[in-house]
Design brief:
It contains 11 helices and 14 strands. With 340 residues, the chain is of the alpha/beta class. The protein has 2 domains: 127 residues, Response regulator (Rossmann fold, 3-Layer(aba) Sandwich); 135 residues, Response regulator (Rossmann fold, 3-Layer(aba) Sandwich). The longest helix is centred in the first third of the chain and has 21 residues.
Length: 340
């Protein structure tokens, strides 16, 4: 009888021990391969949530040109202004391509980021970006869009650049004259939105101004110089040139100076290049201005991420209007340390 009771007691103890192990939140190292596969393919949001004490992750493309180099510069500047320590308060990572960026996104999720600010290479990173939302981590998308969901989106206003530039040029010219309009088809919607908005405002408010289209291959000084040289030869009299990029404007300005043209009184730009800011400040005989689409807008995206982490309301879609920079206010944006 005693042997039977001992056997029964041992069985009960084994059962209790197994039940206790089964309640250990999946932390057992004895999980089968099929269980691990199921967990890896399950939506991250099932068992992940943002760590409010984690760093704000900033995931952007590597600096291949001036504007993108400015992104990293202004991002770090903003984080320091906010008193965030690198590593614990913020984590800035850059990548060369979509695959690298997708891997970095997963690393930032695993790191326990409190929020992620993402400037996508292209919308091909959308699948990886969705994992951020699935992990219940706030996602602030900057400049380029993704196809999935996001917490907030911030970008500059391409149509606004065209509209505000048209208003200024039209007013300066008194509603009369001829303007050469730069198109850069290789830039896709950037060129289309800026040029279409410029033309729409001109047709609406200054219908007597004649517009002459010309085209550049890309947003470079070399291309701006080449195409402007051609348009100056083709047009003996121009009152202004509407350029949609600061780098292009630098080339156009060189073409104007090389040709000795004094008829052109106004030249626009777009972006926020420190080199072009300097030209605005120094120019004589021609009035230069630009409409900002500055990499410094990344600061607004980082602030939005911090506000979300702190529990403050942030609008889902945020379009930042351009600031017109002229000789009168250019001193406020000059920054000798800026890489762009």
């Amino acid at each position: 009888m005693k042997k039977v009771l001992c056997a029964m007691l041992a069985a009960v103890m084994v059962t209790m021990s197994l039940t206790s192990c089964g309640d250990n939140g999946g932390s057992s190292s004895d999980a089968s391969p099929s269980d691990s596969q199921s967990s890896a393919s399950a939506p991250e949001g099932n068992n992940t949530t943002a760590n409010p004490d984690g760093p704000i992750a900033i995931v952007v493309p590597a600096a291949e040109h001036g504007w993108m180099a400015g992104i990293a510069y202004f991002a770090e500047q903003k984080c320091k202004e906010m008193g965030l320590e690198e590593g614990t308060g913020y984590k800035l990572v850059t990548s060369a391509n979509v695959n690298d960026q997708a891997n970095q996104i997963e690393e930032m999720i695993d790191l326990g980021a409190s929020a992620i600010v993402l400037l996508p290479h292209t919308d091909e990173v959308s699948v990886a970006a969705q994992k951020i939302m699935d992990a219940n981590i706030p996602l602030v998308v900057f400049d380029r869009k993704v196809t999935g969901d996001y917490t907030a989106y911030l970008a500059g206003d391409n149509p606004g650049i065209g509209t505000e530039s048209a208003k200024l040029m039209g007013e300066k010219l008194g509603g009369e004259g001829t303007i050469a309009v730069l198109n850069v088809p290789s830039s896709g919607s950037v060129s289309t939105e800026r040029v279409d908005a410029f033309k729409a405002e001109m047709a609406k408010s200054y219908p007597n101004i004649k517009l002459v289209d010309f085209t550049a291959d890309d947003f470079t000084q070399q291309s701006g110089l080449k195409t402007a040289t051609d348009v100056l030869v083709a047009n003996e009299k121009l009152d202004a040139i509407f350029s949609i990029d600061d780098e292009s404007s630098l080339g156009i300005l060189q073409a104007i100076n090389d040709a000795g043209r004094t008829d052109i009184k106004y030249l626009s730009g777009a972006g926020g290049s420190q080199t072009y800011f300097q030209k605005i400040d120094e120019a004589e005989g021609i009035e230069l201005f630009t409409a900002t689409y500055s990499p410094s807008m990344i600061k607004d995206a980082i602030q939005a991420a911090k506000d979300i982490v702190d529990g403050n309301d942030v609008a889902k879609d945020n379009i930042i209007p351009p600031t017109i920079v002229t000789k009168d206010n250019v001193s406020t944006v000059l920054d000798a340390n800026s890489p762009y």
